[in-house]
Write a structure and sequence with these properties.
heterotrimer; A alpha+beta (about 350); B mainly alpha (about 290); C mainly alpha (about 270); B: about 290 residues; mainly alpha; MetI-like fold; 2 domains; 13 helices; C: about 270 residues; globular
Chain lengths: ~350, ~290, ~270
């Protein structure tokens, strides 16, 4: 089921949570809505579900205008952030609930066998008689998914699906959700504030800020070609170095970096920690090492440039560096953006 | 916590043995004097002239009639207030609307208003000198100084009981469960009966029991609107007053012992329900966030 | 702009609520206010400031104050003992604290009268000490104490239970004595709840009727509470006077309601973690 959002607006009290968002989600696609808190991502998800009504704009499911269809008739499966499992029902009863209340009457045996199928799908065979309080967080998450899938939704929506789980469980569940998605091929939209989660899991990532889409594309597109300093910073650690832009190139400390399309004047270089090299001799940007952090996968160096900018970059574990060393940094890769106003 | 031996822990504030014993001693004595003694004296006085007189008072037609009227008032006022309490809790906790905080305060008003004031207020609605009095009189409908007046006055005094047990709990539980149920296709009624109600049933019952105790024991408001007609508009508390002022103290205490018994049962039921988690909203009461 | 609700049932539930509150609560109180207002200011003032009425306010407010102060100490001690100490009979005490709420006021009234009458268990002892309780303002105070005791216990108890032990431990590690810690750490944290309980308790005392009329002498000018005066005016068919004096109690109730709500809002601001 293809989903189409057209200039959707939502205001709470006086706060405009979503400011005219248009978005297309192809049938069978797995899309992540990624953004910091307050970016409007959950509100968009809830509007697609019908748990909020848009104040303006339209939401289409396929050819059908779904803007005004109430959630109970919209045919979506929704996985709540804290799962919202019915605490007084067993796991099996939770999963069966949607089928029992459905207008399509099913007999007891049909429901039971469907519940068994779903329990198998989410690998919870044998836990049907437990209550939600008696299973682990990761298991609850899977029950919530099974319950959402039980009504054969046209669209699956997940609100911070792994937010409440610890890192290891989260990684496993992520792989597993991807498998389920490939198996069922259901159009899926999920919300997260965790860029790694969005990049690992989604076919396409939609990045939001202050109720608007700032960039969207495949993980490769958004990672390799961030269109703004915000996206660059939000997707991962980035070092910021002031530079002078002239005729499509940024200049700093004897380095000259490609900056096509950036207006002449003050600019900023953004570089990932892995894209910075350290050498004792120039050319490069003069810097002094302030601290060296040893980590399992390498050495992280903290340094300060001559201009007083703090830098973080990685060197090979064997590299001999220590605090107080002076030297030069060069940039293997960097993106240049117009200077934003920053406090000194 | 309570089962862990406190002896091996460092003392908390106020755990000095002497202070502790002193505090417990004072409180136990005061509770015995202030709370237990009145309960005991009811029993003692009720049976002071022997079992025979007690029995005679209790099965006297006027007493029985008062019991019947009290039960009738409870049978009507409690369910009505229960429906009201559920409706108010649903509206207030599941939706946002203008004036919600004000509505919450208005619902609590009956707790602050003296029952006598409530009774007087009803006089000015349904009494002859009140708003509807002349009209009611012309159509020969008796509300005041009759059973309907007693029931309506009881409803006023006990209106907030169920609502105020449900509202904090349903507030704490949030809307997630209802939204989940609706997203799975359940109707409003189905959502209420299958999802909301099972999670608030103990709090609901708690409110109902407290409401019932108050309806059965209401005195001030009822004494204004009832007219105190023996064998007709006398509830049990009013009957007690009547007997007492007739210099039939033993009879009054015999009738009072029935209400005291109801009070004791109410307390027992209350404790039992509190074990089920009713009566107090704790931080972990949000079932959506409960961890094992 | 479209404003619709996702969950169903707002019109029905809000409709039922507003209808019921309107009919049962607002209408009668409005009728009472209307009746009192229709008196005209001079008549109204004459009635509510008559010496008998003023005497009734005096005895009601003073007794309520006395009862509330007693309950402040007793209620706090009771809550403290129930939450902080483990001893046989603790659960029973915890349970019977609610008895004053569960026991009908008329029943409490005759029971207290029997206890404190000259020939009663307590009355005869106190008589020996030269203290008369029944049919005096002290009797009124005792009846008020009884009916309003649970308010303070039940508002303080949950806060005391949820008090983070780490706060006391921190104060202990800084070298505070028990009394200092109680005064400087525990009491300030309890204060909002304690004050809310006090205002609830005081409001209840002002309006109490059933428990008092049996034990009070009901003598005009000395042991006649305001609620009783209203009742007497009604029995005299002086409805205007009843309305006027009732409106005074109603205003007092609204005032206390406002105070309580304000205090509870403060208490919440204190206890709810952000």
């Amino acid at each position: 089921m293809k989903i189409h959002l057209e200039n959707v607006v939502k205001t709470f009290e006086s706060f405009q949570a979503v400011k005219g968002v248009s978005l297309d989600i192809e049938s069978g696609e797995l899309v992540a809505l990624l953004g910091p808190s307050g970016s409007g991502k959950t509100t968009i998800l809830r509007m697609v579900a019908g748990l909020e009504y848009a104040d303006g704009g339209a939401i289409h499911f396929g050819d059908q205008d779904a803007t005004d269809i109430p959630v109970r008739d919209r045919g979506v499966g929704f996985v709540f952030q804290h799962y919202a499992l019915f605490p007084h029902m067993t796991v099996a009863d939770n999963i069966a609930f949607g089928m029992k209340v459905s207008k399509v009457k099913r007999d007891r045996a049909a429901i039971d066998s469907r519940v068994a199928d779903l329990l198998r799908l989410v690998r919870l065979e044998g836990l049907g008689d437990r209550f939600p309080a008696q299973i682990s967080g990761g298991q609850r998450q899977r029950v919530a998914l099974a319950r959402a899938l039980s009504v054969d939704p046209k669209v699956l929506l997940l609100d911070e699906p792994f937010g409440a789980l610890d890192a290891n469980v989260r990684r496993d569940l992520r792989r597993w959700l991807r498998e389920i998605h490939s198996e069922l091929g259901i159009t899926t939209l999920f919300v997260t504030h965790d860029q790694e989660e969005a990049l690992d899991l989604a076919d396409r990532v939609v990045i939001l800020k202050d109720g608007q889409i700032v960039q969207q594309g495949t993980p490769q597109e958004v990672c390799r070609d961030p269109k703004s300093a915000f996206v660059m910073k939000f997707l991962g650690d980035a070092n910021v170095i002031a530079a002078e832009v002239k005729d499509g190139r940024a200049h700093v400390g004897g380095l000259s970096i490609e900056a096509a399309g950036v207006a002449d004047g003050r600019g900023e270089l953004y570089a990932r920690p892995r894209d910075i090299d350290w050498s004792v001799e120039g050319p490069g940007i003069a810097a002094e090492i302030t601290r060296v952090l040893d980590r399992a996968d390498g050495r992280r160096v903290l340094a300060t440039t001559g201009a007083g900018e703090a830098l973080e970059f990685d060197v090979e574990p064997e590299r001999v560096v220590k605090a107080g060393d002076a030297g030069f940094v060069t940039l293997r890769r960097a993106k240049v953006f117009c200077a934003t106003l920053r406090l000194p | 916590m309570s089962t862990v031996s406190t002896r091996r822990k460092p003392p908390r504030v106020g755990d000095a043995p002497l202070f502790r014993r002193l505090m417990i001693g004072i409180v136990v004595v005061l509770v015995a004097l202030v709370i237990i003694a009145p309960l005991v004296i009811i029993g003692v006085e009720a049976f002071s002239k022997g079992w025979q007189l007690y029995r005679d008072t209790v099965i006297h037609p006027d007493t029985l009639h008062a019991v019947m009227l009290t039960v009738l008032a409870a049978l009507i006022a409690v369910p009505v207030n229960t429906v009201f309490g559920i409706a108010a809790a649903w509206a207030i906790t599941k939706f946002d609307f203008w004036g919600k905080r004000f509505l919450l305060v208005v619902i609590e008003i009956p707790f602050s208003v003296s029952p006598i004031v409530a009774g007087v207020a009803y006089l000015f609605v349904y009494g002859l000198q009140g708003l509807f009095g002349p009209w009611l009189d012309a159509h020969d409908i008796k509300i005041l100084f009759a059973v309907p007046g007693i029931i309506i006055a009881s409803m006023f005094v006990t209106a907030p009981f169920v609502a105020r047990e449900l509202i904090p709990l349903m507030q704490a539980q949030g809307r997630d469960l209802e939204e989940a149920s609706t997203s799975l296709g359940a109707s409003g009624w189905r959502t209420f009966f299958s999802v909301t109600l099972p999670n608030v049933k103990w709090a609901l019952l708690y409110g109902v029991i407290l409401c019932n105790a108050r309806v059965m024991g209401e005195f001030g408001a009822v004494s204004v609107v009832s007219g105190n007609i023996r064998g007709q508009t006398n509830t049990l508390p009013l009957h007690i007053e009547l007997l007492y002022h007739d210099y039939n103290a033993t009879g009054a205490f015999a009738a009072a012992s029935i209400l005291a018994l109801i009070a004791v049962f109410t307390i027992i039921a209350k404790v039992a329900l509190e074990r089920q988690g009713a009566g107090r909203v704790r931080k972990t009461d949000n079932p959506a966030e409960k961890t094992s | 702009m479209r404003r619709r609700n996702v969950l169903p049932g707002l019109p029905l539930s809000l409709g039922v609520t507003l209808f019921y509150v309107g009919l049962i609560v607002v209408l009668p109180l409005a009728a009472l206010a209307f009746k009192a207002a229709s008196l005209g200011f001079e008549d109204y003032w004459r009635i509510v400031s008559s010496s008998r009425a003023v005497a009734s306010y005096r005895v009601t407010v003073l007794s309520a104050l006395g009862a509330t102060v007693f309950n402040l100490f007793f209620g706090l001690s009771l809550a403290w003992v129930i939450t902080r100490y483990r001893f046989p009979g603790r659960r029973i005490i915890d349970a019977v604290v609610d008895l004053p709420f569960a026991l009908p006021t008329a029943v409490a009234g005759i029971a207290l009268t029997a206890l404190f009458a000259n020939s009663g268990w307590f009355g005869s002892v106190l008589e020996g000490l030269g203290i008369k309780v029944a049919y005096t303002p002290i009797g009124i105070m005792i009846a008020m104490c009884f009916t309003s005791l649970p308010f303070i216990v039940r508002t303080v108890q949950p806060v005391l239970e949820d008090l983070d032990p780490a706060l006391e431990e921190a104060a202990q590690s800084l070298g505070g004595s028990d009394w200092t810690i109680f005064r400087k750490v525990i009491l300030p944290l309890l204060a909002p709840a304690l004050l809310a309980g006090v205002s609830l308790s005081f409001a209840r005392c002002l309006g109490e009727f059933g428990a008092i009329i049996f034990i009070a002498g009901n003598q005009p000018m000395s042991t006649e509470i305001t609620a009783l005066l209203i009742f007497i005016r009604l029995e005299e068919y002086d409805y205007q006077a009843a309305a006027a004096i009732a409106s005074v109690l109603l205003l007092a109730a609204f005032f206390m309601l406002a105070v309580t709500n304000w205090l509870q809002a403060r208490a919440l601001r204190y206890t709810v973690k952000g």
